[in-house]
Amino acid sequence: MFSLTRYTTPCPEPINAQILQMVVDNLTDISSVALPPSNLLYNIYQYAIGFEVHLYLEALGGSKGIAVELIVATSAQDAEKVAGFVLCLPVKDDPEACGIAFMAVQAGFRRQGVARGMMREVLARYPHAELACSVEKVPAFEAMGFQVRGARGTQVLMNTRDYATDGLMGVLDVAPIFSSLEVRQIHTYLLQKHGKRAMVDAEKQRDRHLDQLARKAASFVKSVRD
């Protein structure tokens, strides 16, 4: 069993820490890049997605000028143990709409209704929700009331309705993360450890991987529409 808490202001640091650990532990699952751990660039993307979610958690309460809400599932036996979370972005000028930015469930709590429970909580407040996910996750989100709308890069775009909202959703500019000092330091460390050729190969592997995912998403959406 689990309990759900909705946050519209910054949540306690122990909750933040567990969410961020879950994010970096599940990079392949929740990132549109979805790099496997075997790729030498994996640590860079781990840092980047962790910092991105950190920025959104900081934005709870409106301090960064965008609307952010968080649903956290905690263990019924231990209220301080995070079982999962959903980070959503309410849409301006459309009180029924939101975008699902990030969602994850701890490995030990999967197949216990946590994801469905958190999503039910979100949809009770925002019945018009949109998200992007991997092809493999489409059936799970269809079971929660979403339908395929199209392809977005490496992922499938899904919505609880057959149209997108006309409102505006505020998002943070996270591109500077990849030019930050921390990312440059990680890259320098990896370069020194593995060498230039290995890093170039890792970048080529990443690019091929992303191309394959994009083709897979586009092919899947086409098959659904046909």
Automatic annotation (TrEMBL):
InterPro entries, alphabetized: Acyl_CoA_acyltransferase (IPR016181), GNAT_dom (IPR000182)
Domain N-acetyltransferase: 28-163
Pfam families assigned to the protein according to its UniProt record, in alphabetical order: Acetyltransf_1
Protein name per Swiss-Prot or TrEMBL: Acetyltransferase (GNAT) family protein
GO molecular function, one term: acyltransferase activity, transferring groups other than amino-acyl groups
Transferase is among the record's keywords: yes
UniProt keyword terms in alphabetical order: Transferase
